[in-house]
Amino acid sequence: MSTIYEVEHLHQPDGWLSPGYVEVGDDGIILSVSGTKPETKPVERLKGFGVPGLSNLHSHAFQRALAGRTEFVTTARAEDNLWTWRKEMYRMVDRLTPEDYEAIAALVYLEMLQFGMTAVCEFHYVHHLPGGEPHANAAEMSDRLVAAAAHTGLGLTLLPVLYAHGGIGKKLEATQRRFAHSVDDYLKLIETLRSRRVANPRLRVGVALHSLRAVTPDEARAALAGMKAIDPDARLHIHVSETTHEVAEVQAGLGARPVQWLLDNVGLSPDWCLVHATHLDASEIAGLAASGAVAGICPLTEATMGDGFFPLVEYDAAGGAWGIGTDSHYCTSTAEELRMLECGKRLELRRRNVIARPDSAHPEYEAHTGRVLFDTSLAGGEQASAQGGGALVAGRRADLVMLDPDSNPLLGHGPRTVLDAWILGGTQNPVRDVMVAGDWVIRDGHHPGAASIRDAYQRAMTRLVQ
Ligand SMILES: [Zn+2]
């Protein structure tokens, strides 16, 4: 059995089909895409613009509970930055229960769907009880994330984090004991989580090293080798070069800048996602781009932390792959993250249309900023998450997002400018329907679990913020 949809305008890797016919199998995989109406089967018509669901490549779901709670200074915290924010985050970590973790994640995952994301890479490091003792179920906190994703319908690439040190040559702080594993225990957790895939077909499991500050070179090599022995195709994520402080610490401790150290000592490949990669020198930009790894840019989180700005123009000119994450979830909107990236660069460089480049071989070709931003982050997100979506073509997972042509930003727009209008042209969210793996999880803006998810989140916040 299969279902055929007639989509008024269907996003394709090389343009649009208007209309496009998508046949989705019962297993949630796209069987065929065509511009010709099939004669034999009934068809459901979908008005508007059908685009692929985006994979969000970096999330710490629980940090959403901190959004809007640290936006002030005191004499004790007059110089506020990532490291002072981290103290506030740790105060929250000390109080987080498994129920809180699930409730917060469910709200964040619901919002991602509402903004057109159909999968997330969850960089998950709060594993144990406060103080560091394991839960009776060692995978308790991971299972809460799996439950939140299953409840909402979002695809989940779960990245349990190996976190063993509080800095190069430093022991963990008391709060950080909730994060800690030996490499052996870490690989056991990976095996346990892979067993959860039987009941959760949208679950992928990868590996994450917190940073080069938090694992030694030997631990990094052992974890990567162990993971590759379990799953040769596993995705590998790491925080890197988010701040100049981190770059200086790694340079002093390991003898090279962080990205250069990774290039020289573990080797980078398209399996890798380097989260942030904000502070790169010219050699690192060239090396990272040539490696095929994805740079995981988190524009609004990096902005709210005052980290610095990713060298987008130089990296893109070198052919580097990138995608976007919403990280600490000051924002969960695809459009706002991409707008921040493009418009931040416009402010810095004092010119318009930064990411799009004309094609001198085809003078009539229009390079549209919205289309380039969307398509590049779509490919980078799929590469980093390995969810199996990323394009509305045969063989890919049927992750279809319908944009409403009657929403304010899209009024009067056609396929030529619709992605510019969504990402750069308005504030109202045009996402109307969201399909993940062939299942409609949002229809006409409605998710069946939305009210209960919101209530559970509110209860968690009441407990946490006292
Ligand atoms: Zn992060």
Describe the structure.
- The chain is 36% helix and 20% strand.
- It is an alpha/beta fold.
- It has 2 domains: 2-52 and 390-450, Urease, subunit C, domain 1 (Roll); 54-349, Metal-dependent hydrolases (TIM Barrel, Alpha-Beta Barrel).
- Strands 6, 7, 8, 9, 10, 11, 12, 13 and 14 form a 9-stranded parallel beta sheet that branches. Strands 1, 2, 3, 4, 5, 15, 16 and 17 form an 8-stranded mixed beta sheet that branches.
- Helix 3 links the parallel strand 7 and strand 8.
- It is globular, with a radius of gyration of 22 Å.
- Zinc ion binds at residues 58, 60, 123, 239, 275, 327.
Determine Rg (CA atoms, Å): 22 Å
Percent strand: 15-25%
The main sheet comes to: 9 strands, parallel
CATH architecture of the largest domain: Alpha-Beta Barrel
Q: Catalogue the ligands.
A: zinc ion
> Roughly what percent helix?
25-40%
The residue ranges in which pLDDT falls below 50 over 5 or more consecutive positions are: none
What global shape is seen? globular
The number of helical runs is 14
CATH topology of the largest domain: TIM Barrel
Terminal CA distance reads 53 Å
Oligomeric organization of the protein chains: single chain
Q: What is the CATH class of the largest domain?
A: Alpha Beta
- The overall strand count is 17
Q: Name the structural class.
A: alpha/beta
Domain unit count: 2
Mean pLDDT equals 96
For the record, what is the CATH homologous superfamily label of the largest domain? Answer: Metal-dependent hydrolases
